[in-house]
Amino acid sequence: MSPACAQLGLGTVWHRRQRPARHAFHYPSYFLHLPLRQLRAQPCEALRRNRRGLLSFHDRDHGDGGSDALAWFDRLLLAEGIHEATGEVWLQTFPRVLGYAFKPVSFWYAHREDGRLAAVVAEVNNTFGERHIYLLAGPQLDFSRSQSARKVFHVSPFCRVEGDYSFRFDRRLDAAGRPAWLRAAVDLHDAHGLLLQTSQAGLLQPLTPQAVRRAFWGLPLMTFGVVLRIHWQALRLLCKRVPFFSKPSAPSELVSR
Q1: Which of 99, 119, 199, 205 counts the most CB atoms within 10 A of its CB?
Q2: Could you give the dihedral angle defined by the CA atoms of residues 38, 40, 41 and 42, in that order, rounded to the nearest 10 degrees?
Q3: 1 within a domain of the structure (yes/no)
């Protein structure tokens, strides 16, 4: 297998609500797909890390806000009793665009030395500045297999904090064994069945200065648009008379499994 390299994913973000009013949207988008152990050993020249750029990645946007997101992630797994995640750690996340980012969810894929998944973390942020970690692990964890977790964190005022998430991660590799396409899908089920379906997917390409410029000029101010679209879709849901629920207290624990 070729050495891991930083990648840019070009694709879409998609949401669909089933009840009490049907509501769906999809937007073009892009994301970073970063091999954090490889980047620690050999930084990527095209990745503006912890500094300004058209697109950039800042460690303090993740975890405990420290200067080394990978170190935080390794400590998290060890504290949760996961010791076999010594292979590559890939992070799927929105970049900062012109220094700004809002990251509704980032996905961390922790691998064993033999390349198998040891854990996946969904790092969720809401618009109130709160963060929660859903940790998926166990012998059944793998790409293209569903995993579930109880919903405990407030994200949308149009959904109660109840029900279960179903996570599914799909990946295709190229002839050299490098990731070529990636999708993270998260569905929410409540007592009445499927309520929401969401996904973020994209074709992967090496992160180069040319790829950065094409992504930026193809979707300028993309992360500003994330926040604007959240509020626009909220207005559409209000117009459809979807019930609005007040924000509950954040969970007492940062991590749930």
Answers
A1: 119
A2: 80
A3: no
CB atoms within 10 A of CB 194: 15
The amino acid at residue 139 is: P
Going by C-beta distance under 8 Å and a sequence separation of 6 or more, which residues neighbour residue 183? 11, 169, 170, 171, 199, 200, 201, 202
Would 23 be classed as within a structural domain? yes
User: For the chain, what is the domain count?
Assistant: 1
Under 8 Å between Cβ of 54 and 223: no
Q: What tokens does 125 get?
A: 């942020």
Dist. CA 18–CA 206, nearest whole Å: 37
Q: Answer for the pair 151, 126: CB distance below 8 angstroms, yes or no.
A: no
Q: Do the domain assignments include residue 141? A: yes
Give Cβ neighbours of residue 38 (< 8 Å, ≥ 6 apart). Answer: 3, 4, 5, 88
Range of the domain at 11: 7-256
Ramachandran region, residue 126 (left: φ > 0; alpha: ψ -120 to 50; beta: rest): beta
pLDDT digits (tens, 9 = 90+) for 164-175: 999 999 999 999
